[in-house]
C-alpha cells in the first residue's frame, strides 16, 4: 500500500498484510490480458484475485509524470498529487474525455461513458467516497481515476455492489494496490453444455431473466451490455448465472428516456431495431458532435437486442449465428470463426 504508485484502493490491504488472503496457485489464468489467481480468505471463502493488464498502468504512470512536469521515470505516487487528477474538484464528462484521449483510449472502447450523465458521474464519485464524508480526498480521487482508466470493470462492480443491485455479477470483495478480489468458485457456463436438458433450460432462463433485470430491476439505471458470449458467463456456487466481464457494460440514466405520452398526441410504438440499426446507433452515440440527450434517449429502443444477442450468441447452435461485438469494432460487428453450442 505504501509503495503503490497509483492504486485502486486499500480496503483489503490490512487483511492481506495480516496473511488472511492466500493464493491457491502460482499459475494464473489469462483473460483479456488480465491475470486471474485462485485464492482464499481466512481458509473459508474461495476467491479470485484479478490483476489487470499493465498496459494502461504504464500509460497512466507516464501521463502523470508528464502532467506534473517531472521526468518520465518519476515516482507516479509522488507526482500524482501535483496533477489535474488530484486538483479537479468534481468528476466531469469533459475531464474524463480529456483523460481518455491522453491515454489513447477511444470512447467506442469505453462503454461506461456511453451516456455519462451528471447523475451517473456523481454516483461514481460517491462510490469512491470510502468514508462517506461527502468530500473526495486526494487519495480517493486518485483511486477513482486510476480505476476508471485501468480497470473500468472494477468501477462497475464497486458501484453495483455498493448500490445493492444484485443483477447477475460476481461480488467484489475489495481491492488493494493494483489488484481486485472478487467472488470465486465460478464454473464456466461452457463446461455445462452437456448437462441434462432441465439444467440447461434453467440456466438459459436465468440468462434471459438477467437481461430483463438489467433493464427493469432499478428505477433509475438501465444496464446495457452488447458483448454477450458464452465465455463471459459462469455459474456461482449457489447455482446462479453471473456475467464475469463487465468492462463492456454501459450504465444509462433512465432520466434520458421519454415518459409515456399522456396527451395521446404521440405514440410509443417503436420500429424494431435490427443488428444493422444498432451498428448505426453505436456509431452515432460515440460521435464527438452528437446530441447526447437525443442519442441516449434511444438506448431503451435498441435495448431489446440484448435478448437477440443472448439467443444468437449463447443459446443457439445454428451455424449462421456468429459472435457479434456490438461495441468494439469500427463497423459495430466482429465475427469469430467459432460458433457456440447451445
Structure description:
The model is unreliable at 260-268 and 327-342 (pLDDT under 50). The N and C termini lie far apart (45 Å). It is built from 13 helices and eleven strands. Helix 7 packs across helix 8 (152-162) and helix 9 (197-216) runs antiparallel to helix 13. With 342 residues, the chain is α+β, with helices and mostly antiparallel strands. The longest helix has 20 residues, at 197-216.
Furnish the topology, listing elements before pairings.
Layout: H1 13-17, E1 21-23, E2 29-31, E3 34-41, E4 45-51, H2 55-67, H3 76-79, H4 84-87, H5 93-102, H6 118-127, H7 138-150, H8 152-162, E5 172-176, E6 179-183, E7 187-188, H9 197-216, E8 221-225, E9 233-235, E10 241-243, E11 249-253, H10 275-285, H11 292-296, H12 299-302, H13 305-315
Antiparallel strand pairs: 1-3, 2-3, 3-4, 4-6, 5-6, 7-9, 8-11, 9-10
Helix pairs in contact: 7-8, 9-13
Family: Belongs to the DIPK family.
InterPro entries: DIPK2A/B, FAM69_kinase_dom
Keywords: Secreted, Signal
Amino acid at each position: 500500500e505504501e509503495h503503490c504508485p497509483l492504486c485502486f484502493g486499500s480496503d483489503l490491504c490490512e487483511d492481506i498484510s495480516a496473511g488472511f488472503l492466500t493464493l491457491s496457485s502460482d499459475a494464473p489464468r489469462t483473460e483479456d490480458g488480465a491475470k486471474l489467481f485462485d485464492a482464499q480468505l481466512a481458509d473459508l471463502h474461495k476467491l479470485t484475485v484479478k490483476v489487470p493488464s499493465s498496459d494502461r498502468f504504464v500509460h497512466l504512470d507516464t501521463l502523470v509524470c508528464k502532467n506534473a512536469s517531472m521526468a518520465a521515470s518519476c515516482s507516479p505516487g509522488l507526482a500524482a498529487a501535483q496533477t489535474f487528477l488530484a486538483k479537479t474538484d468534481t468528476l466531469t464528462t469533459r475531464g474524463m474525455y480529456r483523460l481518455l484521449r491522453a491515454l489513447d483510449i477511444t470512447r467506442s472502447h469505453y462503454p461506461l461513458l456511453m451516456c455519462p450523465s451528471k447523475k451517473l458521474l456523481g454516483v461514481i464519485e460517491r462510490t469512491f467516497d470510502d468514508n462517506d464524508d461527502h468530500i473526495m480526498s486526494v487519495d480517493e480521487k486518485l483511486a477513482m481515476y486510476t480505476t476508471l482508466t485501468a480497470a473500468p470493470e472494477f468501477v462497475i462492480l464497486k458501484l453495483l455492489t455498493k448500490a445493492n443491485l444484485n443483477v447477475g455479477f460476481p461480488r467484489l470483495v475489495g481491492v488493494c494496490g493494483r489488484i481486485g478480489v472478487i467472488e470465486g468458485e465460478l464454473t464456466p457456463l461452457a463446461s455445462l453444455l452437456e448437462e441434462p436438458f432441465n439444467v440447461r433450460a434453467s440456466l438459459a432462463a436465468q440468462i434471459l431473466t438477467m437481461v430483463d433485470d438489467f433493464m427493469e430491476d432499478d428505477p433509475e439505471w438501465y444496464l446495457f451490455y452488447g458483448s454477450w458470449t458464452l465465455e463471459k458467463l459462469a455459474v456461482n456456487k449457489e447455482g446462479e448465472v453471473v456475467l464475469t466481464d463487465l468492462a463492456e457494460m454501459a450504465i444509462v440514466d433512465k432520466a434520458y428516456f421519454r415518459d409515456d405520452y399522456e396527451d395521446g398526441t404521440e405514440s410509443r410504438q417503436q420500429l424494431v431495431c435490427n443488428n444493422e440499426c444498432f451498428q448505426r446507433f453505436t456509431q452515432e452515440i460515440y460521435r464527438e458532435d452528437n446530441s447526447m440527450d437525443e442519442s441516449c434517449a434511444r438506448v431503451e429502443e435498441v435495448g431489446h437486442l440484448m435478448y437477440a444477442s443472448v439467443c444468437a450468441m449463447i443459446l443457439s447452435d445454428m451455424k449462421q449465428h456468429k459472435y457479434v461485438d456490438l461495441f468494439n469494432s469500427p463497423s459495430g460487428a466482429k465475427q469469430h470463426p467459432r460458433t457456440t453450442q447451445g
